[in-house]
Write a structure and sequence with these properties.
It contains seven helices and twelve strands. The protein is of the alpha+beta class. The strands form two sheets. The chain has a seven-stranded mixed beta sheet with strand order 7-8-9-10-11-6-12, with helices on both faces. A five-stranded mixed beta sheet has the order 1-2-3-5-4, with helices on one face. The longest helix has 15 residues. The radius of gyration is 17 Å and the shape is globular. The two termini are about 30 Å apart.
Length: about 220
């Protein structure tokens, strides 16, 4: 066992496929360390309300933050300017065809306050394998035959666990996210897991809910 910042015991994963109770995570949401990125472990993680997030030179870190940022599909907010974009012919959308390209684009995006990317080569391999198994899916946005935006995540059939998105053209990632929400709403998905708060997601209608409530929705 290792100790984390708030002195709770930190769970060290072994080869056994398991995660501790999410309520044992520390105040920052860190739940466990170690393990691997096998498809089986990743799928168990998402079904348990856990996701990996770590740097290239770090052990694998597993998180379950409280509160949790989510979007209920029917609460998607579409501004008047975005309504015009959606009705225009500026962007075209494809789904789950260019997954690897979206993954690579998300990995290369420079993000404020971050050095490098958390989408490491091992992470790429892991999510590509999940994609081959039909579990990881992407939305791709095109402008004049150029890939300018998109997102990817894990589809659990009732919850979509969003992992990352990118935009090389203004509103491109919003275009993808709105289409995702609208489609999942029609399919009666419970929610889109956005993991952590960002102002961008909040403007689109995402909100923070208690982790306990998130787990209840995930398990129901």
């Amino acid at each position: 066992m290792k100790k984390n910042r708030d002195s709770n015991p930190m769970f060290l994963l072994s080869e056994r496929l398991e995660f501790p109770d999410v309520e044992t995570a520390n105040v920052e949401g860190l739940l466990a360390i170690g393990g691997d990125l096998s498809p089986e472990r990743l799928l168990l993680a998402y079904k348990s309300g856990v996701f990996p997030w770590f740097n290239e030179d770090s052990l694998i870190l597993w998180w379950s933050p409280n509160p949790r940022m989510v979007l209920f599909p029917d609460k998607i907010k579409i501004s008047k300017s975005m309504q015009k974009v959606l009705k225009s012919n500026q962007f075209k959308l494809t789904k789950n065809i260019y997954f690897e390209q979206v993954l690579n684009k998300c990995a290369s995006v420079k993000r404020v306050g971050q050095q490098g990317t958390w989408i490491t080569n091992d992470m790429k391999k892991a999510y590509l394998e999940l994609h081959k198994r039909g579990l990881a899916k992407s939305y791709e946005v095109w402008e004049k035959d150029v890939l300018v935006g998109g997102l990817y995540g894990i589809d659990l059939g009732h919850v979509f666990c969003g992992e990352s998105m990118f935009s090389d053209s203004s509103n491109a990632s919003k275009f993808a996210f709105i289409h995702l929400a609208q489609e999942l709403g029609k399919k009666k998905y419970r929610l889109i897991d956005c993991q952590l708060h960002t102002n961008h997601l909040e403007r689109l209608g995402a909100e923070e809910i208690p982790r306990k409530k998130f787990i209840e929705l995930l398990k129901s």
